[in-house]
Amino acid sequence: MFVYLPLVWLYVGITALVIYVIFPIASLNFKKVSQKLGFNQGQLLNLIYLIGEIITVIIIFYIVKENGFTLEYLGFSGKLSLTAVSYAIGGFILSFALFPIVDVINKKFGWGMYWKKWEVKNFAENLKTKRNLILMIIMWPILFAPLEEMIFRGFALHLLLENLNNLFLVYIFSSLIFAIAHCFIGPGAMLYIFLGTFIISFIYITFNSIYPCILMHSLCNLIGGIIVPLIEERWSK
Q1: More confident residue, 196 or 129
Q2: For residues 215 and 112, is the Cβ–Cβ distance under 8 A?
Q3: ∠60-149-78 over CA atoms, to 5°?
Q4: In sequence order, what are the residues at sequence separation of 6 or more whose Cβ sits closer than 8 angstroms to the Cβ of residue 47?
């Protein structure tokens, strides 16, 4: 099964194919298409990401089934106990505390959280209209969180645990794999994701289940990506 590990980056390849091959061949301007759909460029990127992730998960499901495994192989095991919930909430709090550390490092090296190409000054830009707010809630906490946990914890981290005897290397490679998969977002975001992945990997290894990982991931996306930007936007007025 380890030979299938590169599949976790399939949706990154799909995203690159759409943006850098299909769009130019079809003489489509990414920015203009975004505006025509009523999105900013970051949101259109998210939609392409989402389609790629769904395709990736379908392929992973097929491979797991063809190799004689059930969904338990992908971490669909156990129950979301009170202890698991407390770990997920604690992991969210710890990951939130990483922001000041990442911000210091970004400023020291002159990194931005996002690539300038996507014109995302802050997440509040994604939440200006009711439609965009609903879209973000559906995508980030409800869809992205479980899809990415199936791909990167249920599949990738599981494979690393099966094939590497060094737990430290498992954590390092798991974090690198997840950070690289977010290369389209920006260098600062990749650093934050690299560090935060240590926390969520620990939770997966502790409970051998993706359920608390999905909960933590959803909390991070909902609160960090939607609620906090909305509060900051109101306070700044």
Answers
A1: 196
A2: no
A3: 95
A4: 39, 139
Domain ranges of the chain: 2-69+81-236
pLDDT of residue 31: 82
What angle, 0 to 180 degrees and rounded to 10, lies between the N-to-C axes of helices 167-180 and 187-207? 140
Place of tokens 């999905």: 214
Phi/psi at 15 (nearest 5 deg)?
A: -60, -45
> Angle of helix 30-37 relative to helix 41-66, nearest 10 degrees?
90
Return the closest-CA partner of residue 198 out of 123, 61, 206.
Answer: 206
C-alpha 54: how far from chain center = 13
Angle at 38 between CA 10 and CA 118, to 5 degrees: 50
Cβ atoms of residues 49 and 58 within 8 Å: no
The predicted pLDDT at position 42 comes to 76
Residues 6 or more apart whose Cβ sits within 8 Å of residue 131: 38
0.85 exceeded by pTM: yes
Burial of 29 (0-12, 13-18, 19+ CB in 10 A): exposed
For the record, the structure tokens of 83 come out as 């202890």
Is the distance from CB of 167 to CB of 146 less than 8 angstroms? no
